[in-house]
Design brief:
The protein has 727 residues and is an alpha+beta fold. It folds into 6 domains: 190 residues, Hypothetical protein af1432 (Orthogonal Bundle), CATH 1.10.3210.10; 139 residues, Beta Polymerase, domain 2, CATH 3.30.460; 96 residues, Roll (Ubiquitin-like (UB roll)); 57 residues, no CATH class; 70 residues, no CATH class; 77 residues, ACT domain (Alpha-Beta Plaits, 2-Layer Sandwich). It is 45% helix and 17% strand. The strands form 6 sheets. Strands 1, 2, 3, 4, 5 and 6 form a 6-stranded mixed beta sheet that branches. A 4-stranded mixed beta sheet has the order 14-16-15-17, with helices on one face. Helix 2 packs parallel to helix 4, helix 3 packs antiparallel against helix 4 and helix 4 crosses helix 5. The longest helix has 21 residues.
Length: 727
């Protein structure tokens, strides 16, 4: 455990003599004016908190002074110490803190919000919620020093815990510390706080393991640190002798870190070789290997404990040399050697320690704030002031709580509607109002980090179209917008399905074709269900005419079916006057299209074996063929269109119904002429009583696409009521 030098008692209360001694110790490195401000803060907390005790039986004033003392040992400024002393000041008394400047009241407000969040989210025991709560604590702090005060207050609380005295409550506090506060200290690089928070948590949560490891170390931390200092001195001398500018540092492994590695590797204490470790930073890669030679020359290497992450970097880009040797006392020592560039990359780049130790994923916004905090912590004497500093540190995300303490992350400026959709789409759809910290708020009001938001919903209902209006300010997140658009799209879905079905049926009837197998067309149009394809036709995204013209693949004919023909049993192709067809299993037969139904590729067709005239090709729905099926089924034969059709002309009958008027025939004829379609015959009939006209045109078309195009043009002629292919 990390030990610290303090002039304050550990428990109980504090008297004036001890306060004076503490102030005198602070006066050794702080100005008279600073000591005066601290004294005024002590007088204020004495008036506000009096003699009330805190958790663990420590007097409230002493607990606050212990917190400030921790921050003093981190060399933080006096403004931070004053804010820590006044951190529990009720908001009603906040104006009394204004005497210490603008920053102190602001930090106290942030601490109050964080304290509320910590209570609400204290049961966040899963990894995702713990991570969200850590992010929330960072997001709530408008000043980096607020986070440090939070960590110092938590460390003070952990120090007063004693095994068994508070029972389950102590374990709850230690669990939160281990999940939330220690990782925060780790990310900020405040190693002193991180080590002690982890060790104190382990002592409460796993007292037996803590005690066993402490006993196994067989030495006090101070003695281990003296050993490390001796190693550093020896290596520094060797590097100087070889003209290498080396920066050597070391710290003994703390108890929690040892326990964690034992758990992760499934080994006992004797197999942990980095209980004591030093790190050597040099300028070049060649110097890394030169120092490695010095280490192996001075101490005996441990076999199988050398890793060259320079030649073979880790997956996250981490580079360094790791080796373990046996020290003069017979105990292992780990040595890490890397360049300063590698070290900077490991500490601040994509290989940062906290990322791969905590299995964290990249998050540019979180990394930006942590980088800013760590940069400031390197120069704690420089207070973060000015608009540029405020803008740089300002969080670009907010973290709000659900009524049950779940943390929800949103972009800054998000509203209650965004929050509702972040919880669940159904909550967003039924959202009609919202409360923040128990007070009603407008749905367009931007939320703030730390608020507990409750969404007021109705049992049934949906979003408003106004929510999609950017100027209305209801939503800012793409998730919410997409869910709202999807809702409105789904509301018209059934209507579009029905419209698509009607549209396709109309086209099939108009073109006189067999309805295609839509299941086989789903992949072509990239839809999952037939209803989705119908809906797309209903919305106009897919042309019903195009779908009607797409025929399914030729059906497979049953090979077992016998056809009584005196011919060679071979498949063959035969060119007729109206297209090329394949007569399954028969060669040498002449084919021609039937005049009664005039089939066109790729109508569904059936062959009829005539006497002396080969095979006549009928449409499957031809009335004549239906009679033949009943009277002479043995003369029917399966046929299909060839996949490759020669370009030619096909006879088709087109039936047109229209209001009768002068010039109607002329207008219709001009459509055929413009489309270069030859008209071979016309039959018209006028109904004088109803003033309607029925016209039947026999025309030559190249294919179904041309027929469809001509029929669409005919349907656009004024007074034309209906256009369809006549069978």
């Amino acid at each position: 455990m990390v030990s610290t030098l303090s002039h304050l008692p550990e428990t109980g209360s504090i008297d004036q003599e001890q306060i004076t001694a503490w102030l005198a110790a602070l006066a050794g490195h702080r100005s008279r004016e600073e000591i005066h401000h601290i004294s005024l803060a002590l007088e204020l907390i004495h008036q506000v908190h009096d003699e009330e005790p805190t958790f663990g039986g420590v007097q409230h004033q002493l607990a606050l002074m212990q917190t400030a003392d921790i921050l003093d040992q981190l060399n933080l400024d006096t403004e931070t110490l004053v804010a820590a002393l006044l951190s529990d000041l009720p908001l009603a008394e906040l104006e009394r803190a204004e005497a210490f400047g603008e920053r102190v009241p602001a930090m106290i407000r942030d601490l109050s919000r964080i304290r509320t969040v910590a209570v609400s989210g204290s049961d966040a025991d899963d990894d995702k919620q713990s991570e969200n709560l850590r992010r929330m604590l960072l997001g709530l702090a408008d000043d980096v020093r607020v986070v440090l005060i939070v960590l110092a207050k938590r460390l003070q609380l952990m120090r007063v815990l004693r095994k068994g005295e508070q029972g389950d409550e102590s374990r709850v506090i230690a669990g939160i510390t281990q999940r939330i506060h220690a990782p925060l200290a780790n990310r900020l690089g405040v190693w002193q706080l991180k080590w002690e928070l982890e060790d104190l948590s382990l002592r409460v949560l796993h007292p037996d393991a803590y005690r066993d490891i402490a006993r196994a170390l067989e030495e006090k931390r101070e003695e281990r640190e003296r050993f490390i200092a001796g190693v550093i001195q020896r290596l520094q001398a060797s590097c100087a002798e070889h003209g290498i500018d080396a920066e050597i540092s070391g710290r003994p492994k703390h108890i929690y870190s040892i326990w964690k590695k034992m758990q992760r590797k499934g080994v006992d204490f004797s197999q942990i070789f980095d209980v004591r470790a030093v790190r050597v930073l040099v300028d070049t890669v060649s110097q890394c290997y030169e120092v490695l030679g010095m280490v192996h020359g001075a101490w005996q290497p441990i076999p199988q404990e050398f890793d060259d992450y320079i030649a073979h970097p880790k997956a996250n880009g981490y580079r360094s040399l790791h080796t373990a040797v046996v020290g003069e006392d017979g105990k292992p020592l780990e040595v890490q050697i890397r360049t300063r560039e590698m070290h900077d990359h490991a500490e601040r780049g994509v290989a940062a320690h906290w990322r791969y130790k905590e299995d964290g994923k990249g998050d540019a916004e979180l990394e930006r704030r942590i980088e800013w905090m760590r940069a400031w912590l390197e120069h704690p004497g420089d207070s973060p002031e000015g608009e540029d500093a405020d803008a740089e540190f300002e969080a670009r995300r907010i973290y709000v709580l659900t009524p049950d303490g779940k943390v929800v992350e949103l972009p800054r400026g998000a509203t209650a509607v965004d929050f509702a959709y972040a919880i669940h789409s159904s909550v967003g759809h039924r959202c009609r109002g919202a409360k923040a910290d128990g007070k009603m708020i407008s749905l367009t009001q931007p939320l703030e980090s730390g608020q507990t938001v409750e969404i007021i919903t109705v049992k049934e209902g949906g979003p408003s179209l106004d929510w999609l209006n950017a100027s209305s300010g209801y939503v800012t997140t793409s998730r919410a917008r997409n869910r709202i658009r999807h809702w409105f799209k789904r509301q018209d879905y059934e209507q579009h399905v029905a419209l698509g079905k009607a549209s396709l049926d109309k086209e099939v009837s108009r073109l006189g074709v067999k309805k295609p197998d839509l299941e086989k067309l789903l992949d072509k149009y990239n839809f999952k269900t037939v209803d989705d394809l119908y809906a797309a036709m209903g919305r106009g995204e897919v042309s019903a005419t195009q779908v009607a013209n797409l025929q399914a693949a030729p059906a497979v004919v049953d090979d077992d079916r016998e056809i009584s023909l005196k011919a060679d049993r071979r498949s063959g192709r035969h060119k007729g006057t109206a297209g090329e067809v394949v007569v399954q299993g028969v060669d040498g037969l002449m084919t021609h299209t039937a005049r009664c139904c005039k089939p066109v590729p790729y109508d569904s067709i059936v062959g009829y074996i005539t006497r002396g005239k080969g095979v006549t090709i009928h449409r499957e729905d031809c009335p004549v063929l239906r009679r033949l099926k009943k009277d002479q089924p043995e003369r029917l034969i399966p046929v299909v269109w060839s996949e490759e059709q020669p370009r030619g002309a096909f006879l088709v009958d087109v039936q047109i119904y229209a209001h009768d008027r002068k010039g109607l025939l002329r207008d219709i004829s001009s459509v055929f002429s413009n489309e270069e379609v030859d008209v071979l015959g016309v039959k018209t009939h006028s109904n004088r009583r109803k003033e309607t006209a029925s016209m039947r045109f026999t025309v030559e078309v190249v294919d179904m696409a041309q027929l469809s195009r001509v029929m669409e043009k005919l349907a656009q002629v004024p007074d034309v009521l209906d256009v369809k292919r006549q069978v």
